[in-house]
Design a protein that fits this description.
heterodimer, A: mainly alpha, B: two-stranded antiparallel ribbon, 3% strand, transport (chain B), amino-acid transport (chain B), membrane (chain B)
């Protein structure tokens, strides 16, 4: 086979993989329909959308590049504080805050990316954990800027595009978050199915082989880490803008642990994993908190232990089989 | 407060950290199992001491063996039931699993004893300070230094000089070959895990006075144990020991001289060290 043939075939398979499956439309139509179907649950839906975006950001590095991060809250917090501060001191326009929040987190990701390229899994785990905790300490000690333990209060948001005003019931908030999630999802989907995305998967599966076929591993990992940080920053900015409040909680360790949990529940390396996981996690949390408000963490922990010990293969195997059946020969996984 | 007093306080703090983390240096450092729930065993030990003293009036020193035994028993049971299937799984699975355990332990402790800080009253012979060549030394800190120092020596001896130690090292290096040589690897790991958990429990009991104790303990100090092990390296017991001393002195010194920096220094030092020496400060390079 000639090189031209091969190139054409590869391009063809990339285009095929990029094509939208009917089931994917159903997911988004359902997400939009929830707007009308559950008008009382819009605040919860908004939280789900934001958490899904955060999980999507983790999926980019964990699911596609194999980087285990225990400090992803650093980027969520960076985005949230940046958006909050912009709203307080510069402009109340949400989109400006969103873009600058993303940029700030992306920058933080770019600056810290050399740190995660070194060493093994364990070193990476510790370094990301360290970065997360450093950010928490930093936000805590820069009380004049961040409000310390009290957080940023009195954030007043302007109308989105000068048209849509934030309301008490989360109507605008959910529409806003869902739109941002959708747009960034489409972008991520495009990226992971590009040659760049494929090279990431090659690095994840076998770094040695990827390196010898000419993939510049450090550059690729730094790029995806920065991208993932920017995504997390967007989630943080949405959180700050729709709740109109930022506190040290956005940088807390439990944020990093929760988002990992969400992604594991939904399945990593499968862009919809974060969305499924976020919905399951939030609904579970909401339900548990309803009958035992103080100790919901216990049940989440129990669920997690049982899930990792036995259920993970069963659940994901089931989902995968279902996806395979629905999508027929063309093969599921997007 | 003189420099020497800070140094001694720091060493005492570091000693407790070492005893707390020594079990983790075996599971994480040697067996390569990321056990973020290690602090939960320490918390169990701490609460055994607190509850025995508060509810039953048991003297402090008598609660220490109890703290060790209860935590060791908990470790043994959990190793047999939950941990063993996790050894072969990925780091990610291990992280999720042990975070789940931590969440459960924190919530269960909150439910059982409430979320307030626990205070114990030490026996009078451990209270107060005395002068050694003009340096004021806290009695309790001296007690901790002596006790933990002896424990560290015993651990080093047990690890390097005994048959148990050499079998363990063999099992860790290559479990399959060790099994082939007739070494009871499974039982060895179980005993090691139990001893490690017991030491964590003892550390938790000794640490109530120095570190404080409330249900968030496993999360609050998780990073400290991890630092001790990852910075100390994984090939010896002495690495984590010196890392713990360093950490203790740096933390106490930092809190005294630059209190506004908080834990910033510790995390910064850890990240810097890990970048410079990804395999640990005192580790020989291992591929």
């Amino acid at each position: 086979m000639s090189t031209a043939d091969l190139t054409a075939r590869v391009r063809g398979s990339l285009v095929l993989a990029r094509k939208w499956h009917p089931a994917e439309f159903v997911v988004w139509v359902m997400a939009a329909a929830a707007f009308v179907l559950f008008p009382r649950q819009l605040l919860l839906l908004n939280e789900i959308a934001i958490l899904a975006l955060f999980a999507l950001s983790l999926d980019l590095i964990l699911g596609y590049a194999g980087i285990v991060s225990l400090g992803h809250a650093a980027f969520l917090g960076m985005g949230a504080y940046t958006a909050g501060l912009i709203a307080l001191h510069v402009t109340a326009d949400p989109l400006v805050g969103l873009v600058i929040g993303m940029a700030a987190s992306g920058l933080l990701g770019l600056v810290t990316s050399p740190l995660v390229l070194k060493g093994n899994d364990l070193t990476r785990l510790m370094v990301t954990l360290g970065i997360g905790l450093l950010m928490l300490e930093l936000a805590n000690s820069l009380g004049w800027l961040t409000g310390g333990a009290d957080g940023l209060q009195g954030i007043a948001m302007g109308k989105i595009l000068g048209l849509f005003e934030f309301d008490l019931f989360g109507k605008t908030a959910y529409a806003y978050s869902l739109t941002v999630l959708f747009l960034l999802f489409v972008l991520a989907r495009r990226i992971v199915h590009s040659p760049f995305g494929l090279s990431l998967r090659a690095v994840r599966d076998n770094p040695l082989r990827a390196a010898s076929s000419g993939v510049p591993i450090p550059w690729r990992l730094a790029a995806v880490y920065t991208l993932s940080a920017a995504y997390a920053g967007a989630a943080g900015a949405l959180l700050a803008q729709t709740t109109q409040f930022v506190s040290l909680d956005v940088l807390d360790f439990h944020r990093s642990a929760d988002v990992m949990l969400v992604l594991i529940i939904g399945g990593a390396g499968w862009l919809y994993g974060g969305i499924v996981g976020a919905a399951v996690f939030k609904l579970l949390q909401d339900w548990i908190a309803w009958f035992t408000p103080q100790y919901w963490q216990f049940w989440i922990g129990l669920f997690l232990v049982a899930f990792v010990l036995g259920g993970r293969e069963i659940l994901h195997g089931g989902i995968r089989a279902l996806v395979a059946r629905v999508s027929g020969r063309r093969g599921g996984g997007s | 407060m003189t420099l020497l007093t800070i140094l001694i306080d720091g060493i005492a703090y570091g000693m407790v950290l070492f005893v707390l983390a020594s079990g983790l240096s075996v599971t994480l450092g040697l067996m390569n199992f990321v056990n973020l729930a290690h602090g939960a065993f320490a918390m169990v030990g701490g609460y055994v001491t607190v509850l025995l003293m508060q509810r039953l009036g048991v003297p402090f020193l008598a609660t220490l063996p109890a703290a060790f035994l209860v935590a060791a028993a908990a470790g043994l049971v959990l190793e047999r039931t939950l941990y063993r299937p996790m050894y072969a799984k990925s780091h990610l699975d291990q992280v999720m699993f042990s975070i789940g355990l931590v969440f459960m332990a924190v919530a269960a402790m909150k439910y059982a004893v409430g979320s307030q800080q626990q205070i114990i009253s030490l026996p009078s012979f451990l209270l107060g300070r005395f002068d050694v060549f003009g340096v004021s030394v806290g009695r309790y800190r001296l007690f901790v230094i002596v006790l933990c120092g002896l424990l560290a020596l015993a651990l080093h001896w047990g690890f390097v000089k005994t048959r148990f130690g050499s079998r363990l090292r063999a099992a860790v290096d290559d479990a399959r070959v060790a099994r082939g040589l007739g070494i009871p690897v499974t039982a060895l790991f179980a005993v090691t895990f139990a001893v490690g958990s017991g030491l964590a429990g003892l550390g938790g009991a000794l640490g109530v006075e120095l570190l404080g104790l409330d249900p968030t303990f496993p999360l609050k100090f998780m990073i400290y144990f991890l630092i001790v092990v990852t910075v100390g390296g994984t090939t010896t017991i002495t690495g984590p020991f010196f890392a713990a001393m360093l950490l203790g002195v740096a933390d106490v010194g930092g809190k005294y001289f630059i209190p506004q920096a908080g834990a910033f220094i510790i995390y910064g030092v850890m990240v810097a060290l890990l970048i410079l020496r990804p395999e640990g400060l005192f580790a020989r390079s291992r591929s």
